[in-house]
Amino acid sequence: MSLDGTYDDGNIFAKILRGEMPCARVFEDDHVLAFMDVFPQARGHTLVIPKRSQARNLLEEEPQNLTGLILGVQRVAKAVRAALQPEGLVITQFNGAPAGQTVFHLHVHIIPRWEGQAMGRHASGGMADMDELKRLAEQIAAKIS
Ligand code: AMP
User: Does CATH place domain 12-141 in 3.40.120.10?
Assistant: First the structure.
């Protein structure tokens, strides 16, 4: 799916938002939901998505939703740091399939990095153990401030 198209409310993140699909939830406020990526590129890979949005990508998002989104990203990123003590953090998002996007509800990746540890490839790793993801989600949630 390129940058042109229409929002499909059957996408996996829309289902998670409606409670139709499970997730390892980290944090939620009025603006965002944060949960663990099930195909993590590193331990602690977390996703932050806007809750009241029908934007497939950053370009489509209503400007008034962006503040809540980026504040949520920063808050969760600080909690990931506090919980897992990474030496770096990749914070990224993809717009359109040719750019690497695979789920078409706007989202931001928070990926912890450690010196000398390679980051897994995007959208091509193995599925993580759900119990382990829930433990990580609890660790990160405990550091939300
Ligand atoms: P993107 O490729 O930027 O659209 O990112 C989508 C991300 O969602 C990928 O990193 C996937 O591993 C992740 N993902 C796909 N399905 C799920 C799911 N059910 N729960 C959590 N993460 C998911």
Answer: no
- Check if 104 has its Cβ closer than 6 Å to any atom of ligand 1: no
Each residue of 22-47: pLDDT tens digit? 999 999 999 999 999 999 999 999 99
Q: Cα(52)–Cα(13) distance, rounded to whole angstroms? A: 12
Domain parsing of the chain, residue ranges: 12-141
Give the distance (Å) from ligand 1 centre to CA of residue 87.
Answer: 23
With a cut of 80, say whether residue 125 has pLDDT above it. Answer: no
Atom nearest to 125 CA in ligand 1: 12
Say if ligand 1 is within 6 A of residue 92 CB: no
- Taking only Cα atoms into account, the Rg of the chain, rounded to an integer number of angstroms, comes to 14
